[in-house]
Amino acid sequence: MNLDRLKANLDDVRRRIDAACRRAGRATADVLLVVVTKSAPTGVFPSLEGLGVSDIGENRAVEGLDRVGPLRAFRRHMIGHLQTNKARKALEWADVIHSVDRPSLLAELARHPQKPPVFVQVNVSGEQSKGGYGPAEAEAAVQEARRSHEVLGLMTMAPKGGDARACFRTLRGLGERCGVAGLSMGMTEDFEAAVEEGATCVRIGSAIFDGVLL
């Protein structure tokens, strides 16, 4: 691994988040960087800790348990689609779940004693390839999720090559209507626009690991 490149990439992402916050008149401390580690070797975790990374994201329940289950130096985020029959595995390691995207998953999560805080996923773009509640369902979904979990906010993914900013702006409006402050939105391709539109959590992998894994 090229650890100098890792540090440079991480510094650049943090700089870009700070610049986007300044453009939007926001405090940098109000935006949480979740480093998406799903494709990185587990040997990178000590370096990430040394570089001050506090939050990491994995997108598969079973693999996440194997990769980050023993780690306590980080807050561990489940950011990918979560199959109902894999929910128990995710609950063995996930400190936060971003992808509560349907009633059956919420009902399954509510059955277990572990109750990590969650984001309710909303399919703002309307793409069939993406999961999530429809925008019109978001308020009722948040109310239902609150019966069993702390709801940190809403999550979405913008369409590749589409109008990311419009999606982020829509999610912000939905968050206001639902009475939630958290907005998990923005990835490598669009995180600066997400920050400018109110993201409180960005999920970034490629921009951080580009050129690092030799």
Outline the structure in words.
β5, α6 and β6 (151-155) form a beta-alpha-beta unit. This protein has a single domain, classed as TIM Barrel (Alpha-Beta Barrel). It is 39% helix and 16% strand. The protein is globular, with a radius of gyration of 16 Å. It has an 8-stranded parallel sheet. It has helices spanning 3-24, 45-50, 61-68, 87-91, 103-111, 138-145, 164-178, 191-196, 206-209, and strands at 32-36, 55-58, 75-78, 96-100, 118-121, 151-155, 182-184, 201-204.
Topology:
Elements: H1 3-24, E1 32-36, H2 45-50, E2 55-58, H3 61-68, E3 75-78, H4 87-91, E4 96-100, H5 103-111, E5 118-121, H6 138-145, E6 151-155, H7 164-178, E7 182-184, H8 191-196, E8 201-204, H9 206-209
Parallel strand pairs: 1-2, 1-8, 2-3, 3-4, 4-5, 5-6, 6-7
